[in-house]
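Here is one chain, start to finish.
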Amino acid sequence: MKRYILGISCFYHDSAASLILNDKIVSAVQEERFTRKKHDSNFPSHSIKYILEKENIDLKNIDAVVYYEKPLLTFERLLETYLATAPRGIRSFIAAMQVWLKEKLFIKYQIKKELISIQKKYTSDHKNIKLPKLLFSEHHLSHASAAFYPSPFEEAVILCMDGVGEWATTSAWLGSGNQIKPIWQISFPHSLGLLYSAFTYYCGFKVNSGEYKLMGLAPYGEPKYHQIIKEKLVDIKDDGTFKLNMDYFKYHRGLRMTSRKFDKLFGRPARNSETKLDQFHMDIASSIQLVTEEIVLKLAKSLREETGIKNLCLSGGVALNCVANGKLLRKNIFDNIWIQPASGDAGNSLGAAFLIWYKHWNNERTINEDDSMNGSYLGCSFSNKEIIEYLEDVKADYETIEDDLLFEIVADLLNQGKVIGWFNGAMEFGPRALGARSIIGDPRNEKMQSIMNLKIKYRESFRPFAPSILEEDVSETFELNEKSPYMLLVAQINQEKCIKMSNKEKKLFGIDKLNIRRSTLPAITHVDYSARVQTVSKKTNPRYYKLIESFKKKTGCSTIINTSFNVRGEPIVCTPQDAFRCFMRTEMDILVLENQILFKNKQKLIDNKEDWMQEFALD
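Its structure:
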């Protein structure tokens, strides 16, 4: 019997929709990819429409719709928090209540209204529309479900760490068979995710999107403030549980993340975005990264001792901290670790859907020996026919080439130092580009990091790039013996590939270290000789695998640079139109859209910018 379940997350950040058919994932997509608004929080109407059209169904075929959290519990937490801190935070309280009383308190009705609007497209009888049953999960339970049910484990400890759900900020669960049971939780305002976000804010990056920048900045600094943070800001117990000193924070009662007392502790106010980063910010980043790693490791150790279970699943925004994940792996606290690739709120749409099938409806669980995420290639895909129709429409110059010759040509272009947009198969679900919507380059090229950062991505020069490597070759280049298909583990470069710094180079500080050649793969080697690794499987992405294999045959190198196909401030591209726009707006050399290859120097150039924007439907 076919039963469809639609999971949705929205109204906070990273809106998404996921559809499962019985226990199989049909699609999972983020709203930002369609609207081109990064971290779009609106109702995922575009995502739902895409999912329904792809499966050739409408809402009458859906057995249940499930929302990823319980809004009334979140409202309860807001009221209790503001009452506890009153009269401080009155401006923040008024602002929050205006939104809640207008929209969020009535999410159930808002969801139904949006679903009715979607269903009207599929029926002429607009007065008698019947909707599927609407259910609600809890935020951290959705995280736990997203982490455990697609994992390859029959039994596992589940650790969820993020900013905050309804009340929980860190929670531990026990997954066994088709059931998930709570062990313990840490509640708001004491939050590891919000602690890290406070330092993200303090260093001038945007909260809920700039945390990975803070992580990338950390290796340029020294953890000089590590002890101060532990003495003044967060009390960490031996088992990893913690309590924040809320005198230094304002996120629970104000419009800022940190208080004046926080600024006074570190001797200066929060950095304004876009102003120069200096050694102080690098040391701050290094310090909070070390504190975060200490908490994660202690929590993991205590959970292993407490339960005796050998498998660990991770989810929540903190689970995207791949540096902490890499250290957790190397400590061998658990025998096996699996991390949900869409660990943020977007992934909760999938977790909520699985929760209904397994826990609520009590169906038997099926386990895939790898996992059930299909490489996280769960989004939109486009045929060569659709791509050619678009390219003809915009009068682009292109050539269609069969796979084997295409891979050989692209490998040769990579070897020549070209920067290539690679659009291939179904779009990834989650924040990482995994070879479906990627910009690729040669990691051996010393200039490639600065070229891609400044001329293609238009982002900060300190940001590292990740390597994609053939799955079977990973241990030849990195100190890693595990699969890392979702780019969620950081590993060190093997010693034989490292280049030792001279005494003069060792004395350099901060960003001055950026252009020092540190390995035979300089473009993907961070300043601490690490890299965020993606292992590529022939099973889940055969075309990307064959491309890297062709590059290896030509160069002897089984690694290429892989960064997300977008420019700074924009979501990863979704459609061929998005990819072509990005290609034309940057200094990218080549664009590959499935089997179509485009060279920048052969494209039509228009002198008048307005005509050019109109010609290529740019906005």
